[in-house]
Amino acid sequence: MKKLTQTLKNIWSIEELRSKILVTLLLIFIYRVGTHIVLPGIRINPAAADANQGGILGMIDAFAGGAFNQASIFALGIMPYISASIFMQLMTVLVPSFQKLQKEGESGRKKINQWTRYLTVIVTLVQASAYVGYLNQMTQQNIASLVPAYQSYFYLSTVVLLTAGTLFVMWLGEKITDKGLGNGTSIIIMVGILARLPQAFGQEFSAKSQPVGMLLVFIIEIAILIAIIMGCILLVQGTRKIPVNYAKQIVGNRQFGGGARQFLPIKVNSAGVMPIIFAQAIMFLPTLFSFNKNSETSQNIAGVFSDHTNIWYMVVYSTVVIGFTFLYTALIFNPKQIADNLKQNNGFVPGVKPGQPTADYIGAIMDKITLPGAILLALVGILPGIAQLLGVSANFSTFFGGTSLLIMVGVILDTLQQIETQLLMRQYDGLMKGGRIQGRQTVTQASI
């Protein structure tokens, strides 16, 4: 406890770090206030809206901190920007002209960021138009009601306000990245997820606190949740280190480098949370069959793929996650490029020839560690359904795994790593006695 107090004092005594923390908290507060501002012309029944969430819409609502079902001006949250960023990231991998632009340095990154913003506007306009249809559907289900006098202006004003709201949230994320602490986009998503934790925790505690024996069950649930979080930390930080040696360089009468052994860290889970996000989107598609009310088969298919506790859902979901993990890892990880970079910098893997043999060696290691990483990622993805089968409430079970837990663990690790770096730069003790905290960005770029 004494060391924790001293660490907090050290953090607060660093003016730059204190300023970053205060700016981050202020921008997060502004974002949370905006999530409670309802779109003009509509009234929402919060209880009915919460009961209506599920599938991909439930995931969007979780990322938006409940703003989606509340018809807030931030209802779409940061998701259109995330979609645009993922698309541009794939373009830089698949299209040579974008690869060349990315290698131009700061100027290339600025152009890609600018195109990402333009694409965000287009994606937001499309999603905002679809969201108006979703609000009309909620109106038909008596979950929401439109003000009659405002009905003729509702479509235009909603699309404009949702687009402006998403762009403002995107601006908040960029300001957190520039002036605050951590990656702004990731922090906004994490805050939206954590905003639902107190309510879910309270509901679970109320359900388990009445019978005396059930309180022990609640304590066991919390212990299992902590164990799962520790396992996710190992999954996020797990790496395989490949030894790399650098040859001596002699320039004139001076020797540079020589004999220094370093390590090339390869992540067990290089794909991050992207396979889970893609899998959830794919699993949502069969539920579209539910629109065919006259087909019993389509209703059964839709029922299976909308029930997270169904065994067939878990099997198909796990298979899709494993497949997407290998696919996405192959897209973002290029052993040939790594081998070429090592060769250009006079680096080599001991016992392996430079060039293509090094690329084959790195690729083989990547394939070996990707399989257990993919299996563990699939297990994390189906843990909420398993927890719900074991008696955990639907809202609280979402924190036992899936996208929410992985994002929270990854973002918290990244933020703590930045704080520790600031402490060590000023010769303070780090946050941990043994070893340094490693975030997702220490080895490869974060997916979110």
From TrEMBL:
Name of protein: Protein translocase subunit SecY
Topology in the lipid bilayer: Multi-pass membrane protein
Assembly and oligomerization: Component of the Sec protein translocase complex. Heterotrimer consisting of SecY, SecE and SecG subunits. The heterotrimers can form oligomers, although 1 heterotrimer is thought to be able to translocate proteins. Interacts with the ribosome. Interacts with SecDF, and other proteins may be involved. Interacts with SecA.
NCBIfam families: 3a0501s007 (TIGR00967)
Record PROSITE patterns: SECY_1, SECY_2
Role noted for this protein: The central subunit of the protein translocation channel SecYEG. Consists of two halves formed by TMs 1-5 and 6-10. These two domains form a lateral gate at the front which open onto the bilayer between TMs 2 and 7, and are clamped together by SecE at the back. The channel is closed by both a pore ring composed of hydrophobic SecY resides and a short helix (helix 2A) on the extracellular side of the membrane which forms a plug. The plug probably moves laterally to allow the channel to open. The ring and the pore may move independently.
Keywords: Cell membrane, Membrane, Protein transport, Translocation, Transmembrane, Transmembrane helix, Transport
SUPFAM superfamilies assigned: Preprotein translocase SecY subunit
Keyword Hydrolase attributed: no
Family label: Belongs to the SecY/SEC61-alpha family.
A Pfam entry, by short name: SecY
Source organism of this protein record: Flaviaesturariibacter amylovorans
Membrane-traversing stretches: 21-39, 73-95, 115-134, 154-173, 180-201, 213-236, 271-291, 311-333, 369-390, 396-416
Localization of this protein: Cell membrane; Membrane
Location (main, coarse): membrane
